[in-house]
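Because discrete structure vocabularies remain unfamiliar, we reproduce here a specimen of the format, pairing a chain with its fold in token form:
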Amino acid sequence: MFKKNWFLLLLVTVMLTGFVFGCGPGEYEDDVAPAPDEDPVDVSVDGPVYLRKTFSWPTQIDPAIGSDFSSSTALTNLYDTLVYPNPDGSFVPHLAASWDISDDDLSYTFYLTEGVLFHDGSELTAEDVVFSYERLQAVGEGFAYIFKGRISAVEALDDYTVEFRMEEPFGPFLSTLTRLYIVNKDLVMDNLGDGPHGDYGDYGTGFLNDNDAGSGAYMVKEFDVATQLTMEKFDEYFSYLDPMAPDIFEMIGTTEAATVRTGMMRREVDISDQWQTLEAFRSLEEIEGIDVARWPDGGQLYLMMNTQIPPLDCVHARRAMSYAFNYDSLVQDIYPGTEQAMGPVSSVLPGWNPNVYQYSYDLEKAEEEMALSQYAGQWDQYPIEYAWTAEVADLEKIALMTQAESQKVGLPVEIVSTPWMTMIDQAGSIETTPHIMSIWVSPHYGEAGSILEAKYHSSNAGTWEQTEWLLNDQVDQLIEEAMRTVDREERFGIYMQIQEEIVELAPTIFAYDNMERHAYQSYYINWPQAQDPIPVMGYNLAARFIQVDPVKRAELLGN
């Protein structure tokens, strides 16, 4: 009756231990590096060990709401999931020690690891898994769209066994469980506020806005929602926790270049955000004891075009914009070391189509497409509003470049510096979404379907991940067909067809495959995920694997 799929947690622990110790701490040429220019703060080697990283802000720590980069990082540290992603896009058991899959692929039975504790000391059980799923769907934000309409019921069969029953086969289901974070049912129920969910009130969203109800390797110590999240190590964590993992992990809400540089020079910042300019990264790399980690993260920079408002409701106008974009200048001058994207899926993500059409910088073709448009001869009546994220300086360079190149063919582009939270609000309706928004999107699980669904299925339109408002029935049907396909090779074949359809519709300028960059204190930090990254947003900053050597840090500070 069942296809057995047993995994042993002991084996997983050994594998993860080998993964972490496979790379030794970063080496520095001198025994003691020079102290920074500014007066350093005093550091006690005997005190708690800190890991401090800067982020674009704000951050949502409610697993039914958060979904962007900083939120995914926080959730990965505060909460656990049934499975855990691997660098190759596969997964291993985590809260689930093993599972069975029915022959018709409509039932998944998970056998939970016993003795897993939440941060309040209570035990995680199957009822918490059921509650977490139902809460995610009821709140309907964050990663809810991944599971919406695909699961008919989730039932606790006993304290440590939970069954998921599918509406229809869901091919990547096990991979998607990296986004079902398990919350403490009793703690949430004890902290309900007023809200629209009947007996469940606000379903604990007010409480979980600045508290956690998780079992993760870290727990909330203090959260100033405007500036900083401070997490402390949970010593009763059930899975691998490196002996040199930091006691305190601070997520600091700033990307301001001078602040980041000063913090890193004073060793008050250990890992930078990824939004620094090329010049800033080069400057940081010159500081003694600091390197820049680089890796393809499975995501892209997308220039999303609102396909529902003039003139970009015309496919020829969108193709003209795609041909008027200077890809070579982007990857050579603004983001050197990256490669132009080929279609909507990053080339490192399983399921990418290597044969899909790739737009090139060609002003002659742009003019040909403009001549085919219903707006030919009227372009001055339809200025194109281009919103770029104010917190990321390099995005202004891309906006200015796009404006200059488009003007060469008579496409009027007006660029607008827009705070990230404003962009999220604007994305909520067709009427408020600008013509173009430049946004990075990374996969939520390790295959092409994650990007294709988030970016182009109508159910996710109006989120920050999909401001194109494509609303295309054929694309929706193909995505749904792929999700129903259990056979991996067949599913990937459908993914490749979807990529061809999307390129033909040109709802997006596929700018470049993102090469994530972070400056970090390599002299005293060993960051294994930087050498073998996971293509699922947030997991490369699971602090339980990161080794911090306070003695070496003190050496850099001259103590």
The chain has a mean pLDDT of 90.
